[in-house]
Amino acid sequence: MPSDTEIRRRRLRFRAWHRGIREMDLLLGGFADAAIEKLEEEDLRSLEELLEVPDHDVFAWLTDQAQVPPVFDTPLFRHLKRFHDHAHPQNA
Fold first, then answer.
1. Measured over all CA atoms, what is the biggest interatomic distance in the chain, rounded to whole angstroms?
2. Does domain 4-83 fall into CATH 1.10.150.250?
3. Global pTM value
4. Contact 18, 25 (CB under 8 A)
5. Per-residue buried b or exposed e for 72-91, using 16+ beta carbons within 10 Å of the residue's own CB
6. Rounded Cα–Cα distance for residues 40 and 37 (Å)
7. What's the gap between Cα 74 and its chain centre?
8. pLDDT of amino acid 6
9. Where are the domains of the chain?
10. Is 78:43 a contact under the CB 8 Å cutoff?
11. C-beta of residue 16 within 8 angstroms of C-beta of residue 32
12. In angstroms, rounded to a whole number, what is the distance separating the alpha carbons of residues 84 and 77?
């Protein structure tokens, strides 16, 4: 029987891959696949909150088209951004 945390991680991974626009599926889903098992409680909570934000906002933050609001400038978001930094690639 899966634990509550395992179920939560599965739901987050599913939500990360089913965003609405393909670019965000790839950005968030790829990150979730690589990092979800290593995320601590605080990061899981931050990811849940980030997944509630509209795609176009998160995409603008990740691509430096808009400034990340302080409430979303979390260690998890910075980890996500570094994960997709092509100049300095980092695996989860």
1. 44
2. yes
3. 0.88
4. yes
5. eebebbebbbebeeeeeeee
6. 8
7. 11
8. 94
9. 4-83
10. no
11. yes
12. 11
